[in-house]
Design a protein that fits this description.
Helix content: 25-40%
Structural class: mainly alpha
Largest sheet: 2 strands, parallel
Strand content: 5-15%
Number of helices: 5
Distance between the termini: 31 Å
Number of strands: 4
Shape: globular
Radius of gyration: 13 Å
Strand order of the largest sheet: 1-2
Amino acid sequence: MTKIDEQFMQDVLNIVDIIPVGRVATYGQIAQMIGRPRNARLVGKALGKSGRHGHHPCHRVVTATGRLVPGWFDQRPMLLAENVPFKDDNHVDIKRCQWQGF
């Protein structure tokens, strides 16, 4: 298993912090933006540990298909509160709400 170093964690959280309200980004998109395009899964692992690093809008990160984090029951209500459109109960409408980055 790959260890998440502090610099990787900070790079991920810096991107997550600028995802606008009402938009989502994907794990792969964040990995690409920090120059680690093959580390989408590691981005997910980092976000799973992000609570130790303060408050960040991690609820705005989904899979490439728009799927929510399984078992994270607060994610959907938080996204709905930001008017993020959904295709079904477990998927945001990624085509309509994906943040295009900087």
